[in-house]
Amino acid sequence: MSEEVKAISLNPDDFVAGGLIDDIIAKLQHSFVMYDYEGKADAPAPCLKLEMVDNESGEEYPVQYLSAGSAQNWVPSDDAKTLVPVGSKTAMTKNSNLAIYLTEMINAGFPKNQLTTSIACLDGVVAHMIRKELPKRGNVSQTQTGKDGKEYAKSILVPDRIVKLPGEKAGAVKGKKTAATDDAVKEAATTFVLELLGEKNGKFQKKEIPAALVKVPVAVRPQVMAMVYANDKFLSEGGGGLWTYANGEVKSVG
Length: 254
Fold this sequence. Notes:
Blueprint: E1 24-35, E2 45-54, E3 64-67, E4 74-76, E5 83-85, H1 97-107, E6 126-133, E7 143-145, E8 151-153, E9 155-164, H2 179-199, E10 203-205, H3 209-212, H4 221-228, H5 233-237, E11 243-246, E12 249-252
Antiparallel strand pairs: 1-2, 1-6, 2-3, 4-5, 6-9, 7-8, 10-12, 11-12
Helix pairs in contact: 2-4
């Protein structure tokens, strides 16, 4: 009796992530490892291992590895949360992929004073992640050749907005939470959507929201981000008849 051949599912619900990851909101987990880029490197080197789970669906994204210098200078600790010096060098260079990632994490809103020697403080961060092109190193451009033979800029995945800090509720406001605080955030979110609709001639895609949030006051930006982007509830409510939301697009009413 011949063995039954199991075919690949064509149902979109069964699809998995592929290609370059960009424009996602994910919960992050970090560790330091030695990695040889699947045999492409001459020898394993210390890297930041970045694991990500989609904040809504729970889907696991492909693991990312960010270079963190040379094994001649430091190696991961036994708990994989720090880098231990093994040579004379004791400071990370600013142009390493790890340094770029951590700088963007601070710029995105993570408290700088919490980031000392252990990467564990970043575990559980929920952030909006985008791709960032790598800068020149010296006079050398960071490019790679695509399958089409063309040169493309190398990029890494970095956070550009913190949605939730570890142990914090999404949209939580520091200090005593009141109905007035909730109302203020909702008002700011509504104003943001209406202003963006005005700028975009009456319609915009949800994926355009993170880049536009820079105009929202810093004091409420994380809460507005959580309200308008982390899930579809606020947009679907339509601001009390001010807009409609369907298939990832917001449109003005009237």
